[in-house]
Amino acid sequence: MATSKKVKNAGKNVKGKVKETTGKAVGNESLEMKGRAEQTAADAKQAGQKAKDTLKH
User: Fold this and answer.
1) CA distances from 31 to 2, 10, 17, 24, 38 (A)
2) pLDDT by 10s per residue, the chain, length 57
């Protein structure tokens, strides 16, 4: 996987974790769920990129 894509996906994962944690802290379930969804999307993209890399080699 390209390094820039790894960093981008990791950044989205961290951003989602921050949203989730903030949502829990302030009692905002909507923000918490958005954070979880963002993390899931980042994880899915990362898995897709890893699969592509595996097929290339």
Assistant:
1) 30, 19, 11, 8, 11
2) 577 888 899 999 999 999 999 999 999 999 999 999 999 999 999 998 888 888 887
H/E stretch holding 15: helix 3-26
The predicted model scores a pTM of 0.82
What tokens does 50 get? Answer: 């890893």
Q: Where are the beta strands (DSSP E) in 1-57?
A: none
Separation CA 38–CA 7 (nearest Å): 15
Q: What DSSP designation does 23 have?
A: H
